[in-house]
Amino acid sequence: MLRRSLVNVGLRLNRQQQHKAGIQGAIEHKKIYGPLWKSTYGPLVVVNVASAELIEQVLRQEGKHPVRTDMPHWRGYRELRNQAHGPLTEMGEKWQRIRSILNPRMLKPKHVSSYSNTINDVVTDFISRVAWLRDTSGQGVMVNDLTAELYKFAFEGICSVLFETRMGCMNETVPEETQKFIFSVGEMFRLSPIIVLFPKSLWPYLPFWKQFVATWDHLFKVAEELVNKKIEGIQQNVDLDKNMEGAYLTHLLLSDQMTVTEILGSITELLLAGVDTTSNTISWSLYHLAKEPEIQEQLYQEVISVCPGDKVPTSSDITQMPYLKAIVKETLRLYPVVPGNARVTVENEIIVGDHLFPKQTLFHLCHYAVSYDENIFPAPHTFMPQRWLRGDDKLKQHPFGSVPFGFGIRACLGRRVAELEMYLLLSRLIKHYEVKPDPTGTAVKPITRTLLCPATPINLKFLDRRAEQGASSLHEDKSHIVMIVTWTTTLSEQCS
Protein backbone atom coordinates (compact mmCIF):
# COMPACT_ATOMS: atom_id res chain seq x y z
CA MET A 1 0.00 0.00 0.00
CA LEU A 2 1.30 3.44 -0.89
CA ARG A 3 1.70 6.05 1.80
CA ARG A 4 1.25 9.73 1.05
CA SER A 5 3.78 10.98 3.58
CA LEU A 6 6.92 9.86 5.31
CA VAL A 7 6.26 8.12 8.60
CA ASN A 8 8.45 8.82 11.64
CA VAL A 9 10.89 10.90 9.60
CA GLY A 10 8.78 13.98 8.87
CA LEU A 11 10.51 16.10 11.48
CA ARG A 12 12.19 19.45 11.54
CA LEU A 13 15.89 19.20 12.22
CA ASN A 14 17.09 21.59 14.88
CA ARG A 15 19.45 24.45 14.10
CA GLN A 16 22.54 22.48 15.13
CA GLN A 17 21.58 19.59 12.83
CA GLN A 18 20.83 21.93 9.92
CA HIS A 19 24.26 23.50 10.05
CA LYS A 20 26.18 20.26 10.49
CA ALA A 21 28.68 19.56 7.73
CA GLY A 22 26.30 18.62 4.94
CA ILE A 23 28.25 15.75 3.44
CA GLN A 24 28.81 13.84 6.68
CA GLY A 25 25.41 14.89 7.97
CA ALA A 26 23.67 13.06 5.13
CA ILE A 27 25.56 9.86 5.95
CA GLU A 28 24.67 10.13 9.65
CA HIS A 29 21.02 10.96 8.98
CA LYS A 30 20.73 7.97 6.67
CA LYS A 31 21.86 5.73 9.54
CA ILE A 32 19.22 7.25 11.83
CA TYR A 33 16.24 7.71 9.50
CA GLY A 34 16.90 5.32 6.65
CA PRO A 35 17.23 6.24 2.95
CA LEU A 36 14.31 8.74 3.02
CA TRP A 37 13.80 11.59 5.46
CA LYS A 38 12.33 15.06 5.49
CA SER A 39 14.18 18.17 6.66
CA THR A 40 14.02 21.95 6.49
CA TYR A 41 16.60 24.40 5.19
CA GLY A 42 15.50 27.95 5.81
CA PRO A 43 12.12 28.29 4.07
CA LEU A 44 12.63 25.07 2.09
CA VAL A 45 11.19 21.68 2.99
CA VAL A 46 13.07 18.88 1.27
CA VAL A 47 12.81 15.11 0.99
CA ASN A 48 16.28 13.60 1.22
CA VAL A 49 17.00 10.51 -0.88
CA ALA A 50 20.07 8.47 0.07
CA SER A 51 20.00 5.19 -1.81
CA ALA A 52 20.98 4.40 -5.39
CA GLU A 53 17.71 2.56 -6.03
CA LEU A 54 15.53 5.44 -4.80
CA ILE A 55 17.60 8.07 -6.62
CA GLU A 56 17.06 6.09 -9.80
CA GLN A 57 13.30 6.07 -9.15
CA VAL A 58 13.24 9.86 -8.75
CA LEU A 59 15.31 10.55 -11.85
CA ARG A 60 13.41 8.15 -14.08
CA GLN A 61 10.17 9.97 -13.23
CA GLU A 62 11.51 13.50 -13.71
CA GLY A 63 9.27 14.27 -16.68
CA LYS A 64 9.76 16.01 -20.00
CA HIS A 65 11.15 19.24 -18.53
CA PRO A 66 13.14 18.33 -15.39
CA VAL A 67 13.67 21.01 -12.75
CA ARG A 68 16.60 20.81 -10.35
CA THR A 69 15.28 23.57 -8.11
CA ASP A 70 13.96 26.99 -9.00
CA MET A 71 17.24 28.50 -7.66
CA PRO A 72 15.36 31.58 -6.42
CA HIS A 73 18.50 33.58 -5.55
CA TRP A 74 20.09 33.06 -9.00
CA ARG A 75 16.80 33.78 -10.74
CA GLY A 76 16.20 36.73 -8.43
CA TYR A 77 19.39 38.40 -9.62
CA ARG A 78 18.42 37.96 -13.26
CA GLU A 79 15.01 39.48 -12.64
CA LEU A 80 16.60 42.38 -10.76
CA ARG A 81 19.03 43.14 -13.61
CA ASN A 82 16.79 42.00 -16.47
CA GLN A 83 19.31 39.35 -17.53
CA ALA A 84 18.36 36.24 -19.48
CA HIS A 85 18.26 32.83 -17.85
CA GLY A 86 20.70 30.17 -19.00
CA PRO A 87 20.71 26.36 -18.93
CA LEU A 88 21.13 26.26 -15.13
CA THR A 89 18.31 28.65 -14.21
CA GLU A 90 15.78 28.37 -17.04
CA MET A 91 12.85 25.96 -16.79
CA GLY A 92 10.15 24.30 -18.88
CA GLU A 93 9.94 24.67 -22.65
CA LYS A 94 12.26 27.69 -22.61
CA TRP A 95 14.94 25.54 -20.97
CA GLN A 96 14.42 22.78 -23.54
CA ARG A 97 14.85 25.27 -26.38
CA ILE A 98 18.11 26.62 -24.92
CA ARG A 99 19.54 23.15 -24.32
CA SER A 100 18.66 22.03 -27.85
CA ILE A 101 20.74 24.93 -29.20
CA LEU A 102 23.65 24.57 -26.78
CA ASN A 103 23.93 20.77 -26.77
CA PRO A 104 25.47 19.84 -30.16
CA ARG A 105 28.80 21.65 -29.81
CA MET A 106 29.15 20.73 -26.14
CA LEU A 107 28.09 17.09 -26.20
CA LYS A 108 28.66 15.62 -29.67
CA PRO A 109 32.03 13.80 -29.65
CA LYS A 110 33.13 15.13 -33.05
CA HIS A 111 32.69 18.72 -31.88
CA VAL A 112 34.22 18.14 -28.44
CA SER A 113 37.29 16.42 -29.93
CA SER A 114 37.85 19.51 -32.07
CA TYR A 115 38.71 21.40 -28.86
CA SER A 116 41.74 19.14 -28.20
CA ASN A 117 44.34 21.49 -29.67
CA THR A 118 42.85 24.49 -27.87
CA ILE A 119 42.90 22.70 -24.52
CA ASN A 120 46.35 21.21 -25.13
CA ASP A 121 47.74 24.70 -25.70
CA VAL A 122 46.53 25.63 -22.21
CA VAL A 123 47.92 22.38 -20.77
CA THR A 124 51.34 23.16 -22.27
CA ASP A 125 51.30 26.56 -20.60
CA PHE A 126 50.20 25.04 -17.29
CA ILE A 127 53.09 22.57 -17.32
CA SER A 128 55.43 25.53 -17.84
CA ARG A 129 53.67 27.40 -15.03
CA VAL A 130 54.25 24.45 -12.68
CA ALA A 131 57.97 24.66 -13.47
CA TRP A 132 57.91 28.41 -12.75
CA LEU A 133 56.01 27.88 -9.49
CA ARG A 134 58.60 25.32 -8.36
CA ASP A 135 61.48 27.62 -9.22
CA THR A 136 59.99 30.57 -7.35
CA SER A 137 58.51 28.77 -4.34
CA GLY A 138 61.75 28.72 -2.35
CA GLN A 139 60.83 25.15 -1.37
CA GLY A 140 62.59 23.16 -4.06
CA VAL A 141 60.06 21.26 -6.16
CA MET A 142 57.01 22.11 -4.03
CA VAL A 143 53.89 23.68 -5.55
CA ASN A 144 51.64 25.23 -2.91
CA ASP A 145 47.84 25.54 -3.04
CA LEU A 146 47.51 23.42 -6.15
CA THR A 147 43.73 23.86 -6.30
CA ALA A 148 44.08 27.62 -6.77
CA GLU A 149 46.50 27.04 -9.65
CA LEU A 150 44.22 24.45 -11.24
CA TYR A 151 41.32 26.87 -10.91
CA LYS A 152 43.27 29.27 -13.11
CA PHE A 153 43.94 26.45 -15.57
CA ALA A 154 40.27 25.47 -15.71
CA PHE A 155 39.17 29.08 -16.14
CA GLU A 156 41.69 29.60 -18.94
CA GLY A 157 40.61 26.35 -20.58
CA ILE A 158 36.87 26.95 -20.55
CA CYS A 159 37.33 30.57 -21.72
CA SER A 160 39.44 29.28 -24.61
CA VAL A 161 36.59 26.96 -25.61
CA LEU A 162 33.62 29.26 -24.99
CA PHE A 163 35.02 32.70 -25.85
CA GLU A 164 37.79 31.52 -28.19
CA THR A 165 40.26 33.76 -26.37
CA ARG A 166 42.96 33.54 -23.71
CA MET A 167 42.57 35.28 -20.35
CA GLY A 168 46.19 35.35 -19.18
CA CYS A 169 45.77 32.93 -16.26
CA MET A 170 48.93 31.05 -17.22
CA ASN A 171 51.07 34.19 -17.18
CA GLU A 172 53.53 34.70 -14.34
CA THR A 173 51.38 37.66 -13.31
CA VAL A 174 47.66 37.03 -13.78
CA PRO A 175 45.72 40.12 -15.02
CA GLU A 176 43.85 41.95 -12.27
CA GLU A 177 40.46 41.69 -14.03
CA THR A 178 40.90 37.94 -14.42
CA GLN A 179 41.78 37.59 -10.74
CA LYS A 180 38.70 39.59 -9.82
CA PHE A 181 36.50 37.37 -11.99
CA ILE A 182 37.87 34.23 -10.32
CA PHE A 183 37.29 35.79 -6.89
CA SER A 184 33.71 36.72 -7.84
CA VAL A 185 32.94 33.13 -8.84
CA GLY A 186 34.15 31.89 -5.46
CA GLU A 187 32.20 34.55 -3.58
CA MET A 188 29.01 33.77 -5.49
CA PHE A 189 29.20 30.09 -4.53
CA ARG A 190 30.08 30.98 -0.93
CA LEU A 191 27.12 33.34 -0.53
CA SER A 192 24.53 31.18 -2.30
CA PRO A 193 23.75 28.76 0.59
CA ILE A 194 23.53 31.69 3.04
CA ILE A 195 20.98 33.66 1.03
CA VAL A 196 18.55 30.78 0.53
CA LEU A 197 18.21 30.52 4.33
CA PHE A 198 16.16 33.72 4.25
CA PRO A 199 12.77 34.51 2.69
CA LYS A 200 12.97 36.42 -0.57
CA SER A 201 11.19 39.40 1.00
CA LEU A 202 14.19 39.97 3.28
CA TRP A 203 16.88 39.81 0.60
CA PRO A 204 17.01 43.56 -0.17
CA TYR A 205 17.88 44.22 3.49
CA LEU A 206 20.67 41.66 3.74
CA PRO A 207 24.33 42.67 3.29
CA PHE A 208 24.86 39.16 1.86
CA TRP A 209 22.40 39.93 -0.93
CA LYS A 210 24.18 43.14 -1.87
CA GLN A 211 27.49 41.27 -2.05
CA PHE A 212 25.81 38.51 -4.06
CA VAL A 213 24.44 41.03 -6.57
CA ALA A 214 27.85 42.70 -6.85
CA THR A 215 29.56 39.40 -7.68
CA TRP A 216 27.01 38.59 -10.39
CA ASP A 217 27.33 42.13 -11.77
CA HIS A 218 31.04 41.56 -12.29
CA LEU A 219 30.55 38.11 -13.82
CA PHE A 220 28.09 39.43 -16.37
CA LYS A 221 30.24 42.52 -17.03
CA VAL A 222 33.27 40.42 -18.00
CA ALA A 223 31.19 38.00 -20.06
CA GLU A 224 29.48 40.89 -21.87
CA GLU A 225 32.83 42.46 -22.75
CA LEU A 226 34.05 39.17 -24.23
CA VAL A 227 30.85 38.65 -26.21
CA ASN A 228 30.94 42.21 -27.56
CA LYS A 229 34.58 41.79 -28.54
CA LYS A 230 33.69 38.68 -30.52
CA ILE A 231 30.76 40.48 -32.20
CA GLU A 232 33.13 43.26 -33.30
CA GLY A 233 35.54 40.70 -34.74
CA ILE A 234 32.75 39.02 -36.68
CA GLN A 235 31.50 42.35 -38.02
CA GLN A 236 34.99 43.32 -39.20
CA ASN A 237 35.25 40.09 -41.18
CA VAL A 238 31.78 40.61 -42.63
CA ASP A 239 32.74 44.14 -43.72
CA LEU A 240 35.78 42.66 -45.49
CA ASP A 241 33.65 39.95 -47.15
CA LYS A 242 35.63 37.25 -45.35
CA ASN A 243 34.15 33.89 -44.50
CA MET A 244 33.79 33.65 -40.74
CA GLU A 245 34.31 30.34 -39.01
CA GLY A 246 34.83 29.67 -35.36
CA ALA A 247 34.07 27.44 -32.44
CA TYR A 248 31.47 27.86 -29.73
CA LEU A 249 30.68 31.56 -29.32
CA THR A 250 31.18 32.37 -32.99
CA HIS A 251 28.81 29.55 -33.94
CA LEU A 252 26.12 30.80 -31.52
CA LEU A 253 26.40 34.38 -32.75
CA LEU A 254 26.28 33.41 -36.43
CA SER A 255 23.45 30.90 -36.08
CA ASP A 256 20.85 33.54 -35.11
CA GLN A 257 19.07 30.94 -32.96
CA MET A 258 19.50 32.99 -29.79
CA THR A 259 19.50 36.69 -29.02
CA VAL A 260 22.71 38.27 -27.76
CA THR A 261 21.08 38.62 -24.32
CA GLU A 262 20.25 34.90 -24.28
CA ILE A 263 23.76 34.01 -25.39
CA LEU A 264 25.20 36.17 -22.61
CA GLY A 265 23.04 34.47 -19.97
CA SER A 266 23.92 30.99 -21.20
CA ILE A 267 27.64 31.59 -21.70
CA THR A 268 27.99 33.08 -18.21
CA GLU A 269 26.34 30.04 -16.60
CA LEU A 270 28.42 27.63 -18.69
CA LEU A 271 31.54 29.43 -17.54
CA LEU A 272 30.59 28.93 -13.89
CA ALA A 273 29.83 25.25 -14.39
CA GLY A 274 33.03 24.62 -16.32
CA VAL A 275 35.63 25.59 -13.73
CA ASP A 276 35.07 23.80 -10.42
CA THR A 277 34.65 20.28 -11.80
CA THR A 278 38.03 20.33 -13.53
CA SER A 279 40.02 22.15 -10.85
CA ASN A 280 38.72 20.23 -7.83
CA THR A 281 38.76 16.81 -9.49
CA ILE A 282 42.34 17.10 -10.75
CA SER A 283 43.42 18.43 -7.34
CA TRP A 284 42.02 15.35 -5.60
CA SER A 285 43.37 13.02 -8.31
CA LEU A 286 46.91 14.33 -7.89
CA TYR A 287 46.54 14.27 -4.10
CA HIS A 288 45.77 10.53 -4.19
CA LEU A 289 48.30 9.70 -6.91
CA ALA A 290 50.99 11.32 -4.77
CA LYS A 291 49.98 9.13 -1.83
CA GLU A 292 49.67 5.98 -3.98
CA PRO A 293 52.90 5.70 -6.03
CA GLU A 294 51.93 2.26 -7.39
CA ILE A 295 48.76 3.69 -8.91
CA GLN A 296 50.69 6.67 -10.26
CA GLU A 297 53.28 4.38 -11.85
CA GLN A 298 50.56 2.27 -13.49
CA LEU A 299 49.02 5.43 -14.95
CA TYR A 300 52.44 6.64 -16.14
CA GLN A 301 53.12 3.34 -17.90
CA GLU A 302 49.72 3.49 -19.61
CA VAL A 303 50.31 7.05 -20.84
CA ILE A 304 53.81 6.44 -22.23
CA SER A 305 52.71 3.19 -23.89
CA VAL A 306 50.04 5.09 -25.83
CA CYS A 307 52.07 8.28 -26.27
CA PRO A 308 55.79 7.42 -26.22
CA GLY A 309 58.55 10.00 -26.42
CA ASP A 310 57.40 13.55 -27.10
CA LYS A 311 53.99 12.56 -28.48
CA VAL A 312 51.28 14.80 -27.01
CA PRO A 313 48.04 12.97 -26.06
CA THR A 314 44.95 13.86 -28.09
CA SER A 315 41.28 12.98 -27.70
CA SER A 316 41.78 9.87 -29.85
CA ASP A 317 44.69 8.73 -27.64
CA ILE A 318 42.52 9.08 -24.54
CA THR A 319 40.22 6.32 -25.81
CA GLN A 320 43.15 3.92 -25.31
CA MET A 321 43.70 4.92 -21.67
CA PRO A 322 41.10 3.08 -19.55
CA TYR A 323 43.12 3.41 -16.35
CA LEU A 324 43.26 7.19 -16.75
CA LYS A 325 39.48 7.29 -17.06
CA ALA A 326 39.11 4.96 -14.07
CA ILE A 327 41.20 7.32 -11.93
CA VAL A 328 38.96 10.27 -12.81
CA LYS A 329 35.82 8.20 -12.12
CA GLU A 330 37.13 7.06 -8.75
CA THR A 331 38.06 10.63 -7.84
CA LEU A 332 34.56 11.82 -8.71
CA ARG A 333 33.08 9.01 -6.62
CA LEU A 334 35.08 10.03 -3.55
CA TYR A 335 34.64 13.76 -4.17
CA PRO A 336 31.56 14.50 -6.29
CA VAL A 337 31.79 18.20 -7.11
CA VAL A 338 28.04 18.47 -6.57
CA PRO A 339 27.59 16.35 -3.41
CA GLY A 340 23.82 16.69 -3.51
CA ASN A 341 21.59 17.40 -6.50
CA ALA A 342 17.93 18.35 -6.51
CA ARG A 343 14.76 17.63 -8.42
CA VAL A 344 11.32 19.20 -8.17
CA THR A 345 8.29 17.18 -9.28
CA VAL A 346 6.51 19.70 -11.50
CA GLU A 347 4.46 17.51 -13.84
CA ASN A 348 3.06 14.54 -11.91
CA GLU A 349 2.87 12.81 -8.57
CA ILE A 350 5.62 10.23 -8.29
CA ILE A 351 6.20 7.04 -6.33
CA VAL A 352 9.50 6.62 -4.50
CA GLY A 353 9.89 3.47 -2.46
CA ASP A 354 6.44 2.88 -1.02
CA HIS A 355 5.63 6.58 -0.73
CA LEU A 356 3.47 8.73 -3.00
CA PHE A 357 4.73 12.31 -3.36
CA PRO A 358 2.65 15.19 -4.75
CA LYS A 359 3.66 17.67 -7.40
CA GLN A 360 6.06 20.43 -6.28
CA THR A 361 7.94 18.09 -3.93
CA LEU A 362 11.59 19.11 -3.64
CA PHE A 363 13.93 16.11 -3.53
CA HIS A 364 17.51 16.33 -2.35
CA LEU A 365 19.54 13.53 -3.95
CA CYS A 366 22.35 12.68 -1.53
CA HIS A 367 25.00 11.54 -4.02
CA TYR A 368 27.89 11.85 -1.57
CA ALA A 369 26.24 9.54 0.96
CA VAL A 370 25.45 6.97 -1.73
CA SER A 371 28.98 7.02 -3.14
CA TYR A 372 30.24 5.82 0.26
CA ASP A 373 27.70 2.97 0.51
CA GLU A 374 29.80 -0.16 1.14
CA ASN A 375 27.04 -2.33 -0.32
CA ILE A 376 27.73 -0.70 -3.70
CA PHE A 377 31.41 0.15 -3.33
CA PRO A 378 33.38 -2.24 -1.08
CA ALA A 379 36.02 -0.41 0.98
CA PRO A 380 34.32 2.90 0.06
CA HIS A 381 36.94 5.13 1.69
CA THR A 382 39.79 3.54 -0.29
CA PHE A 383 41.03 5.07 -3.54
CA MET A 384 40.63 2.09 -5.92
CA PRO A 385 40.54 3.06 -9.63
CA GLN A 386 40.51 -0.62 -10.61
CA ARG A 387 36.90 -0.88 -9.43
CA TRP A 388 35.92 0.98 -12.63
CA LEU A 389 37.74 -1.30 -15.04
CA ARG A 390 35.79 -3.91 -16.93
CA GLY A 391 35.29 -7.06 -14.91
CA ASP A 392 32.98 -8.84 -12.52
CA ASP A 393 33.21 -6.22 -9.78
CA LYS A 394 32.14 -3.40 -12.09
CA LEU A 395 29.09 -5.38 -13.20
CA LYS A 396 27.89 -5.50 -9.57
CA GLN A 397 27.90 -1.71 -9.17
CA HIS A 398 24.57 0.07 -9.24
CA PRO A 399 24.49 2.49 -12.21
CA PHE A 400 23.18 5.26 -9.94
CA GLY A 401 25.78 4.66 -7.23
CA SER A 402 27.92 7.46 -8.66
CA VAL A 403 26.43 9.95 -11.11
CA PRO A 404 28.67 13.02 -10.75
CA PHE A 405 27.40 14.62 -13.96
CA GLY A 406 23.73 13.92 -13.34
CA PHE A 407 21.35 11.88 -15.45
CA GLY A 408 18.98 12.29 -18.35
CA ILE A 409 18.25 15.33 -20.44
CA ARG A 410 19.17 17.68 -17.57
CA ALA A 411 22.60 16.07 -17.09
CA CYS A 412 25.65 18.33 -17.07
CA LEU A 413 25.94 20.19 -20.37
CA GLY A 414 29.71 20.61 -20.08
CA ARG A 415 30.49 17.01 -19.12
CA ARG A 416 32.43 16.01 -22.24
CA VAL A 417 34.49 19.20 -22.34
CA ALA A 418 35.30 18.88 -18.62
CA GLU A 419 36.30 15.24 -19.07
CA LEU A 420 38.51 16.10 -22.05
CA GLU A 421 40.23 18.83 -20.03
CA MET A 422 40.82 16.46 -17.12
CA TYR A 423 42.10 13.60 -19.27
CA LEU A 424 44.51 15.75 -21.28
CA LEU A 425 45.83 17.61 -18.25
CA LEU A 426 46.25 14.58 -15.97
CA SER A 427 47.87 12.40 -18.63
CA ARG A 428 50.37 15.10 -19.59
CA LEU A 429 51.17 16.13 -16.02
CA ILE A 430 51.94 12.53 -15.02
CA LYS A 431 53.97 12.04 -18.20
CA HIS A 432 56.06 15.11 -17.37
CA TYR A 433 56.20 15.01 -13.56
CA GLU A 434 56.36 12.47 -10.78
CA VAL A 435 54.07 13.78 -8.05
CA LYS A 436 54.93 13.28 -4.39
CA PRO A 437 53.05 14.26 -1.22
CA ASP A 438 53.67 17.18 1.08
CA PRO A 439 56.53 16.12 3.40
CA THR A 440 54.57 17.48 6.37
CA GLY A 441 52.06 14.68 5.84
CA THR A 442 49.11 17.03 6.25
CA ALA A 443 45.82 15.29 5.43
CA VAL A 444 43.31 17.28 3.37
CA LYS A 445 39.58 16.86 3.98
CA PRO A 446 36.67 17.98 1.79
CA ILE A 447 34.26 20.76 2.71
CA THR A 448 31.04 21.97 1.11
CA ARG A 449 30.77 25.56 -0.11
CA THR A 450 27.79 24.87 -2.37
CA LEU A 451 30.28 22.66 -4.24
CA LEU A 452 32.66 20.11 -2.71
CA CYS A 453 36.24 21.37 -2.50
CA PRO A 454 39.40 20.88 -0.41
CA ALA A 455 39.06 22.40 3.06
CA THR A 456 42.77 23.31 3.17
CA PRO A 457 45.41 23.88 0.48
CA ILE A 458 46.82 20.85 -1.33
CA ASN A 459 50.61 21.16 -1.52
CA LEU A 460 52.53 18.65 -3.65
CA LYS A 461 56.05 18.06 -4.95
CA PHE A 462 56.53 17.89 -8.73
CA LEU A 463 59.70 16.08 -9.81
CA ASP A 464 60.69 16.45 -13.46
CA ARG A 465 60.82 12.91 -14.87
CA ARG A 466 63.29 13.82 -17.62
CA ALA A 467 65.70 15.28 -15.09
CA GLU A 468 65.39 12.15 -12.97
CA GLN A 469 65.89 9.91 -15.99
CA GLY A 470 68.92 11.97 -17.01
CA ALA A 471 70.42 11.67 -13.53
CA SER A 472 69.73 7.94 -13.58
CA SER A 473 71.41 7.57 -16.99
CA LEU A 474 74.41 9.59 -15.77
CA HIS A 475 74.72 7.32 -12.74
CA GLU A 476 74.60 4.24 -14.99
CA ASP A 477 77.24 5.75 -17.30
CA LYS A 478 79.54 6.43 -14.34
CA SER A 479 79.03 2.87 -13.11
CA HIS A 480 79.98 1.54 -16.53
CA ILE A 481 83.13 3.70 -16.58
CA VAL A 482 84.15 2.43 -13.14
CA MET A 483 83.58 -1.16 -14.28
CA ILE A 484 85.70 -0.63 -17.43
CA VAL A 485 88.54 1.02 -15.47
CA THR A 486 88.48 -1.78 -12.90
CA TRP A 487 88.45 -4.46 -15.59
CA THR A 488 91.33 -2.74 -17.47
CA THR A 489 93.41 -2.44 -14.30
CA THR A 490 92.84 -6.08 -13.42
CA LEU A 491 93.72 -7.21 -16.95
CA SER A 492 96.90 -5.09 -16.88
CA GLU A 493 97.97 -6.62 -13.58
CA GLN A 494 97.34 -10.13 -14.91
CA CYS A 495 99.38 -9.45 -18.08
CA SER A 496 102.30 -8.11 -16.08
From TrEMBL:
<feature type="binding site" description="axial binding residue">
    <location>
        <position position="412"/>
    </location>
    <ligand>
        <name>heme</name>
    </ligand>
</feature>
<dbReference type="GO" id="GO:0005743">
    <property type="term" value="C:mitochondrial inner membrane"/>
</dbReference>
<keyword id="KW-0503">Monooxygenase</keyword>
<dbReference type="GO" id="GO:0005506">
    <property type="term" value="F:iron ion binding"/>
</dbReference>
<dbReference type="InterPro" id="IPR036396">
    <property type="entry name" value="Cyt_P450_sf"/>
</dbReference>
<dbReference type="Pfam" id="PF00067">
    <property type="entry name" value="p450"/>
</dbReference>
<dbReference type="GO" id="GO:0071375">
    <property type="term" value="P:cellular response to peptide hormone stimulus"/>
</dbReference>
<dbReference type="GO" id="GO:0006704">
    <property type="term" value="P:glucocorticoid biosynthetic process"/>
</dbReference>
<dbReference type="GO" id="GO:0020037">
    <property type="term" value="F:heme binding"/>
</dbReference>
<keyword id="KW-0408">Iron</keyword>
<keyword id="KW-0349">Heme</keyword>
<dbReference type="GO" id="GO:0008203">
    <property type="term" value="P:cholesterol metabolic process"/>
</dbReference>
<dbReference type="GO" id="GO:0016705">
    <property type="term" value="F:oxidoreductase activity, acting on paired donors, with incorporation or reduction of molecular oxygen"/>
</dbReference>
<dbReference type="InterPro" id="IPR001128">
    <property type="entry name" value="Cyt_P450"/>
</dbReference>
<dbReference type="InterPro" id="IPR017972">
    <property type="entry name" value="Cyt_P450_CS"/>
</dbReference>
<dbReference type="GO" id="GO:0006700">
    <property type="term" value="P:C21-steroid hormone biosynthetic process"/>
</dbReference>
<dbReference type="InterPro" id="IPR050479">
    <property type="entry name" value="CYP11_CYP27_families"/>
</dbReference>
<keyword id="KW-0479">Metal-binding</keyword>
<comment type="similarity">
    <text>Belongs to the cytochrome P450 family.</text>
</comment>
<dbReference type="GO" id="GO:0034650">
    <property type="term" value="P:cortisol metabolic process"/>
</dbReference>
<dbReference type="GO" id="GO:0042359">
    <property type="term" value="P:vitamin D metabolic process"/>
</dbReference>
<protein>
    <submittedName>
        <fullName>Cytochrome P450 family 27 subfamily A member 3</fullName>
    </submittedName>
</protein>
<dbReference type="InterPro" id="IPR002401">
    <property type="entry name" value="Cyt_P450_E_grp-I"/>
</dbReference>
<dbReference type="GO" id="GO:0004497">
    <property type="term" value="F:monooxygenase activity"/>
</dbReference>
<keyword id="KW-0560">Oxidoreductase</keyword>
